[in-house]
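Working notes for the structural subgroup meeting. M.R. asked for a predicted model of this chain before we commit to crystallization trials. I am recording the input and output together here so anyone reviewing the notebook later can reproduce the run.

Input as submitted:
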Amino acid sequence: MANVNDMFNDITKEQSFYKASEKKEITPFAKGEYLGHITKVVSKVVDVKNQYKARVYTYTVEVAEENKDKDFNYVDINGNSQPTKGDAYVGKRFLGKLWRFLEPTEKDSFESNSTGNTSYLRFCETIGVDCPREKRNIDGEDIEVQILPNLSDDDFLGRPVTAFVDLGRPWTDKEGKRRQYWDCKFCKKWEGGKKKTIKAGAKDEIPF
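Returned structure, recorded in token form:
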């Protein structure tokens, strides 16, 4: 006589199996320059040290297919340097931050920090955004400055860049565990890189 399980399987025609999954070898991230495209950006205005005000752009760089032939060296669990090819990182994503310090108006109480905009100027030059030079009267003196634009999503999305990646600043989560992620520290030009079509809001995944 068939048991209950056999009778149930005959009625439902259902079958179940277990197959051991193959473990995918994970290559640790390596410090270095990655070819990629900016796939997402968000920005907000923040107070800095109760002294300055800045617009902070948080952007995501996704490693491109063209990165596959680059050479990298990662550090294994024993502290030894190991060589690997860049194809191990294609599709990986890293976060970067960009600060644009704002100029106060007559109604504002915060201070100017225009000398803190060096990284922003270099980023604009990297993605090909013009920063024209003008003469401005500052504290009674005529000084030549470069006008920094307020970048839009379209200025970021799809831009080819060479992202310099390294470990970010360590921090402690709510459970008291020490965390440290790999971040895009800055971007340089990707010579020969092609702009990619990216729809705003298309990438919502956490990049680590």
